[in-house]
Every structure is written in structure tokens, then in C-alpha cells.
Design brief:
It is a single chain. It is built from 13 helices and 14 strands. With 418 residues, it is an alpha/beta fold. It has 2 domains: 3-79 and 99-180, 3-Layer(aba) Sandwich (Rossmann fold); 186-301 and 343-372, Argininosuccinate synthetase, chain A, domain 2. Strands 3-2-1-4-5 form a 5-stranded parallel beta sheet, sandwiched between helices. A hairpin with a 2-residue loop joins strand 8 and strand 9 (235-239). Helix 3 (71-84) crosses helix 8 and helix 4 (101-115) packs across helix 5 (130-141).
Length: 418
Amino acid sequence: MNSKTKVKRVVLAYSGGLDTSIILKWLQTTYGCEVVTFTADLGQGEELEPARQKALLLGIKREHIFVEDLREEFVRDYVFPMFRANAQYEGLYLLGTSIARPLIAKKQIEIARKAGADAVAHGATGKGNDQVRFELSYYALEPDIKVIAPWREWDLTSRSALIAFAEKNQIPIAKDKRGEAPFSTDANLLHVSSEGKVLEDPAQEVPEYIYSCPISPEDAPDEAEYIEIDFERGDAAAIDGKPMTPATLLAHLNECGRRHGIGRLDLVENRFVGMKSRGMYETPGGTILHCAHRGMEQITLDRGAAHLKDELMPKYAELIYDGFWFSSEREMLQALIDRSQEFVSGRVRLKLFKGSAAVVGRSSSYSLYDRDLVTFEEGIGAYDHRDAAGFIKLNALRLRTLARRARKSAASAPISKG
């Protein structure tokens, strides 16, 4: 090993699963370094204490094991700012995996500073987007940090090789991990994603057993459920009049969405690294929240601001998807988006039914909706029907000019002789 690859201490993003346990041991044997583990609770719904115990079993010092509950920070500082923008990658994906990576990377860097580590490591493969998201975030926060990506370095290229390495190094292997998984999953408080294996043929419907929520839209209740969400400056703050913390609120919306089979998405997307991939996403609470936020903006944003936000949204979503959360351009866009949310406050009423969330009412003390202006009856206010004639003629001026030129050009064109 040359001097450039020497590492004294590395912080590993550690789930406690088989793959990251193998990575942990591989780092110890390959680099001869101390390993610090970091396990983040982002609301994935798993007990994290086993990850701590497994790290101890694999020889990690107790003071080098970090397990942190990041649920509130995740929703407050990452999910909510993203939802202010109504961000959807390629018009559909609510970015559940993408938005979690910068927070994990940020915490890894903080722990590296605290523990005196000179490197960080992740378990993302060399084909996916996550390697980019992690590493761009690392370098944005600590430009000289060493980054170790085992999947790009080792020769453990098959499931059998991974199992053999685990057995050789006495790493416990659960029975269901000995065979190759039919698909891989990632989960947090915002979503659950699945990809690979049985999902790799985009012509085939997603098997029902893939979904984490057992209720499909077809099997959802035959009676609709109505809920009300209160917003304050673009962020959801209460459900049915009950104030909630960001993480508690999103968890509650997840329960509502799952009851009605809301938030399923089968998507073939364009990865940042250049290939197309097929993913299945479940974002029950996020789907409801996205719908509600747009409903709130319908009456509190003027046309210019709303349309500008819609024009900028694809760029903002792409920055998050590609891993540029800590870039200057994302922060610039965030400042503009946050400024637009100054009056996005009020209440939205939604109807949840058979896989759908629909806005059925919205109200705000900052509403720009003027019933006297829009009514078909004779209203009062500043609108004079006669003003529309001049407005239309001015907007038609260039169209009429173009039409005259086309007519003149057609009249002067030579007649072909047949």
C-alpha cells in the first residue's frame, strides 16, 4: 500500500447490516486502521441498538460507536426546505433517498472532526447515485478529507465472495442473507425505495410483495378520510388543529397515507452517472404534504412568483438528486424559495381515497383570492370588463404583425408551373 492510501482512522456510515459489517472488517484488514461507526436514525423503522452491539462484536471501541437520532433534523432542515420548492425529480420522484445523503455525510464529517479521523467511508456501489451524493457532500464540507469507497476498490464482486469473506472473518450472517436478495431497499421517514433484481425488467409490473405497505389502492377503505393541514411560512405545522414537530407530523401523514394506499411510484429514471434505472418508491406522507403545499400556494402566491417557482423547480430537484445540496447554486435557489414562502400560511383540507390525495379546500388570512373579482355575478372592485379589449389588442400586436408578414410573403411567392 502506498503512502497516499495510508489511513489512521476512518468514520464509516454503518447500518449494522451484512454489507456494511463486511466493509467494517475489510477496512480494518485492508487499511490497518481504526474504524469509527456512525449509524443514523432517519426514521427507517428499524431498531438501531443491534447495530451498536454488532459494532462492539466486531471489535469497535465503545467510544468509537455513534448512534444518533436525526429524525427531527432530517425533516426540519432537509425535507421541509425541499418541499417548499415542490421539488420532484423528472416531474415525479419526491427525492426520498437523495435528500437523506447530505445529512448523513454532514454528520460523518462532524464525527470525523470529533474523533480525530482522517477519512470517511460509505457503502454505496460504483454504479449508483449515492456514491456521488456522499462524496460531493464530504468534499463540500471538508475539502481535504480522504474518502474510501470499498465497492470501487475491493474484489468482492459476487454474493458468494461476500459471504465467504464474512465467514472467514466470523461476521454473523442471518439466514435470509445467505441467498441473493431479490431486490434492495432503502428507507427513511420520507420514503421506502426498492430497486434491482425482480424490478430490472421495466416491462413487468412491480410484484405486490415488493411494497412495504400491505394496503394497495384497490384494497384501501371504501370511505374517504378528510384531514386538515396548517402551514406556517411554507412548512406544515399542525394536523387537524394539533401542532406537531416536523418528524411527528410527517410520521402521522405516513400513517394516513398508508391507510389509503397513497404514494406508490414505479419510475424509470435517469441516474446522474449516466444509466437509466427502474425504482419503486413509496412516499405516503410526502405525497400528501406535496399536494397540500401546492394547494396552500394556490391562494397565497401571485402568478409571477408561482410560475417562477415552477420554472426553477426542475433545476432545484436536479441539484438535490445529483448530490449538490451544499453547493452555492442550491443555497441561492433556497434563498429565493424561502422568500416566496413569507405568506404561505393557512389551512388546507384534503380528501384521501383509494391511492389519491386531493385538495378540497384552502383558506388563509393572506389569501390573494378575491371572490368579488372572479364572480360571474356583478361584483365590486377594480375590474372593468372593457379594460380587457385593450389588454388583448396589446398582447395580439406581435401575433397580428407576424400574420401580416406571412400573408404578404405568401402573396409574393412565385407560382410554380406544373
